[in-house]
Write a structure and sequence with these properties.
Elements (H helix, E strand, L loop, with lengths): L1 E10 L2 E11 L4 E5 L6 H8 L7 E6 L2 E2 L3 E2 L2 E2 L4 H10 E4 L11 H13 L3 H14 L15 H14 L4 E5 L7 H16 L3 E5 L3 H7 L2 E6 L2 E7 H6 L4 H10 L1
Parallel strand pairs: 3-10, 3-11, 8-9, 9-10
Antiparallel strand pairs: 1-2, 1-4, 4-5, 6-7, 11-12
Helix pairs in contact: 3-4, 3-5, 4-5, 5-6
The structure holds adenosine-5'-diphosphate (ADP) and magnesium ion.
GO molecular function: ABC-type amino acid transporter activity; ATP binding; ATP hydrolysis activity
Membrane topology: Peripheral membrane protein
InterPro entries: AAA+_ATPase, ABC_ATPase_HisP-typ, ABC_transporter-like_ATP-bd, ABC_transporter-like_CS, MetN_ABC_transporter-like, P-loop_NTPase
Length: 249
């Protein structure tokens, strides 16, 4: 469904991604792990065009998403960008909810801006989705009145509201108090069980092992190894992977 092909990204002369190849099948859950600074966020941001790749291509259901001219990557048109944002959801480490809007208004706004949904329909869908993530009782609360775990569940509902083909999660629980993480992880587990295609950058090895089908170890801007989550996490092939897993255990 989602294919990342020879993706590179440099910031000036600092090369962050050195040719990443990755694919996700429909319904697959892939965990992206690796040391801090290894390029996980940059990879996710390049996939949904928050960041312009330096070279390479991202294809969704056979449609190339990265605009090129004469072989070079160029900025996508507003229309192309909107299409990407609709099809590829993103959940951020820092939630990124609008502070001046309630939980429900955040989700209504997203639908109206990206899909042009009518007000009543958007509101009804927002309520349904808030219920789904266990936040129905907080529809009228502003982000500042919610815990990190609650804000992240609203952010997940917002992302679901656009009915994306795939959702990218960038360390969705890193900014949340440990005791509040499980409520977010269980929402993610339910999504996975419902068949959502997900690429999740995470340091939650329990989640990776129990929920993800495959784990990819990204290090120094390249994929060092990947495989079924259980075998990669329990019996990594490379010393570097072993070292990383020991360090975060
Ligand atoms: P990770 O998410 O795995 O911690 P990142 O993708 O955030 O890794 O960062 C990878 C590298 O890219 C780091 O060295 C970081 O400093 C650099 N980097 C990320 N974003 C930018 C940017 N906008 N400008 C310059 N360097 C950046
Ligand atoms: Mg990151």
């Amino acid at each position: 469904m989602l294919v990342v092909d020879s993706l590179t990204k440099s910031f000036g002369d600092h090369t962050v991604l050195r040719g990443v190849d990755l694919h996700l099948d429909k319904g697959e859950v892939v965990a992206l792990i690796g040391p801090s600074g290894g390029g996980k966020s940059t990879l996710l941001r390049c996939i949904n065009q928050l960041e312009l790749p330096t070279s390479g291509q991202v294809t969704l259901d056979g449609t190339p998403l990265v605009s090129t001219r004469g072989g070079a990557v160029v900025a996508p048109s507003a229309k192309a960008l909107l299409r990407v944002r609709r099809q590829i959801g993103m959940v951020f480490q820092s939630f990124n909810l609008f502070a001046n809007m309630t939980a429900e208004q955040n989700i209504v706004f997203a639908q109206r801006a990206a899909l042009g949904t009518g007000k009543d329909e958007a509101r009804e869908r927002a309520r349904t989705l808030l219920e789904r993530v266990g936040m129905g009782h907080k529809a009228g609360s502003h982000p500042s009145q919610l815990s990190g775990g609650q804000q992240q569940r609203v952010a997940i509902a917002r992302s679901l509201a656009l009915d994306p083909r795939v959702i990218l999660f960038d360390e969705p629980t890193s900014a949340i108090d440990p005791e509040m993480r499980s409520e977010v992880l269980s929402v993610m587990r339910e999504l996975a069980e419902a068949g959502m295609t997900m690429l999740v950058s995470t340091h939650e090895m329990g989640f990776a092992k129990q929920v993800s089908d495959r784990t990819v170890f990204l290090c120094d801007g390249g994929i060092l190894e990947e495989g079924p989550s259980r075998s990669l996490l329990e019996q990594p092939t490379h010393d570097r992977t072993r070292q990383f897993l020991r360090a975060i255990a």
